[in-house]
Specification:
GO biological process, one term: carbohydrate biosynthetic process
InterPro entries: AFP_Neu5c_C_sf (IPR036732), Aldolase_TIM (IPR013785), PseI-like (IPR051690), PseI/NeuA/B-like_N (IPR013132), SAF (IPR013974), SAF_AFP_Neu5Ac (IPR006190), SAF_PseI/NeuA/NeuB (IPR057736)
Protein name: N-acetylneuraminate synthase
Shape: elongated
Domain AFP-like: 290-346
Radius of gyration: 30 Å
Helix content: 25-40%
Number of helices: 12
Pfam family, one: SAF
Strand content: 15-25%
Distance between the termini: 63 Å
Length: 346
């Protein structure tokens, strides 16, 4: 599902809970993702009490953007969607022609979401969550797993667990679990490192938390695509100025559409890597060197390199045959500047 061609990643626009509890707004954002060219709209499915301790879950995000200092309090604010709501969102995704995804954060969420989605998602912070990994693997669908804040040994351990539990196709998404991720910490060569270490077991992609630049560009996504990320996930919003943890570092419809256009340009530039000499036939015909005589020569002259000159032309023996010309004799007189043709040689 995720092993795609160069510069053609599976693009996941992570709406998360940026709908702020509004089903209508969530549907509008799905439509925006589809218009912009995304392949999937992704949400987050959790119950605050099953996700974070009420008394002991301090924040790990930029509190100047999201002032809530308790994970439990933040998650409680946006955990109101039920099974019917997710079914409605999945149906709307089908109508818009894109995939519905949502990250389950507990076992009940896995049960709710599994019938609705083409693949399952595991968040970075749950890479070591044994019961959740086993439940996700048991679904039998492709798995996307972000690997932020994890060592390579932990990633290997999680892969082993998933495979033992029956997982098939797995995609590992390089990720830095900081909101936002400073560009200097994005460490995008982690994509290459993951491919070298785990490319025989998983498709490699990227989940991004780097904020768009002041110009609205997304260089982290561009670089991830050129490094060969086959899946790219980025938070998505309808209002980047909105207060909240996942609005300010998200991209919006215009930025997603711009990224999709950039990818199309990259694909055109990349080609397929195979020589296309048919498109260069004029250059081959007119720009390659051919064999000419450098001085007046009489018939029966045995040609040496001193008698010959390599010049660009569209007549004469191709320079690649130089060694087949040297040592042969002329059938007729030649004047300086004449091309050598095969019929001229004995």
């Amino acid at each position: 599902m995720f092993d795609r061609s160069y510069a053609d990643p599976y693009i996941i626009a992570e709406i998360g809970v940026n709908h702020e509890g509004s089903l209508a707004r969530a549907k509008d954002m799905i439509s925006a993702v589809a218009r912009a060219g995304g392949h999937a709209a992704k949400f987050q499915t959790y119950t605050a009490g099953l996700l974070a301790s009420e008394a002991h879950s301090p924040s790990y995000w930029d509190t100047s953007q999201e002032p809530t200092t308790s994970q439990y309090e933040l998650f409680q604010r946006f955990d109101g969607f039920g099974a019917d709501d997710y079914a409605a969102l999945a149906a709307h995704c089908r109508e818009e022609g894109i995939d519905f995804l949502s990250t389950p954060f507990d076992l009940a969420a896995v049960t709710t979401l599994a019938p609705l989605m083409p693949a399952m998602k595991i968040a970075s912070a749950d890479l070591t969550n044994v019961p959740l990994l086993r439940a996700v693997a048991a679904v039998g669908k492709p798995i996307l797993m972000s690997v932020g804040a994890s060592t390579h040994d932990e990633i290997r351990w999680a892969l082993d667990l998933l495979e033992r539990a029956g997982a098939g196709e797995i995609a590992l998404l390089h990720c830095v679990l900081r909101y936002p991720t400073p560009p200097a910490q994005a460490n995008l060569l982690g994509i290459t490192e993951l491919r070298e270490r785990f490319g025989d077991r998983a498709v490699i992609g990227y989940s991004d938390h780097v904020a768009p630049t002041e110009r609205g560009t997304t260089p982290a996504l561009d670089m991830a695509a050129t490094l060969g990320a086959r899946v790219i996930e980025k938070h998505f919003t309808d209002d980047r100025t909105a207060r909240g943890n996942d609005h300010y570092h998200a991209f919006d419809e215009a930025q997603l559409a711009s990224f999709v256009r950039t990818l199309a340009e990259y694909r055109e530039l990349a080609g397929d890597g195979k020589p296309d000499v048919s498109a260069q036939s004029s250059a081959i015909e007119n720009a390659r060197r051919r064999v000419f005589v450098s001085e007046d020569l009489s018939a029966d002259t045995e040609l040496t390199e001193a008698h010959l000159r390599a010049l660009r032309a569209n007549v004469g023996v191709e320079i690649a045959s130089w060694d087949d010309v040297v040592g042969r004799s002329l059938r007729a007189d030649k004047r300086a500047g004449d091309p050598i043709e095969w019929d001229d040689l004995r």
